[in-house]
Amino acid sequence: MYKEFNAHPKGIKTGDCVVRAIATTKSIDYLECRRELNRSKRELGYSSYKDTKFLYDYLKGYPRLIFKAVKGEPRIKGSDFTELHPKGTYILKMAGHITACVDGVILDTWDCSYRSVYTAWEIAK
């Protein structure tokens, strides 16, 4: 369900969840990923690659799963997602966070599996 993993080259725990999740799911170098995100944010007209709208634009070519809220029912959590999707590589947009899920395991610097999942993009390696 969860395994500690930090794609940052110096192992620093910082507010870089977007870079870590994308670098992890695309199996690319962290610094290369950050350069790509900075290039893309300028091309798409955003001031930050941490902007939620940027993320949706940046990942628009990938298959997307949407988890809508249903009145009276709890939202799907990261732990639920890992059980429902034991195979595949996904970027999860959670409540206030972005993370990587590979073959049913959330790979991140902390256990965010209790957070609600709003959407997921399937990343083909």
Task: Describe how the helices and strands are arranged.
Elements: E1 2-4, H1 17-26, H2 30-44, H3 52-58, E2 64-66, H4 78-84, E3 89-94, E4 97-102, E5 105-108, E6 117-122
Parallel strand pairs: 1-5
Antiparallel strand pairs: 2-6, 3-4, 3-6, 4-5
Helix pairs in contact: 1-2
Separation of the first and last Cα atoms: 20 Å
How are helices and strands ordered from N to C? EHHHEHEEEE
Average of per-residue pLDDT values: 95
Inertia-based shape: globular
Tally of DSSP β-strands: 6
Protein model, in words:
The chain has 125 residues and is an alpha+beta fold. The chain has one domain. 31% of the residues lie in helices and 22% in strands. It contains four helices and six strands. A six-stranded mixed β-sheet has the order 1-5-4-3-6-2, sandwiched between helices. A hairpin with a 2-residue loop joins strand 4 and strand 5. Helix 1 crosses helix 2. The longest helix has 15 residues. It starts with a strand and ends with a strand. The mean pLDDT is 95.
Task: Summarize this structure as a short list of keywords or feature phrases.
125 residues; alpha+beta; 6-stranded mixed beta sheet; 4 helices; globular
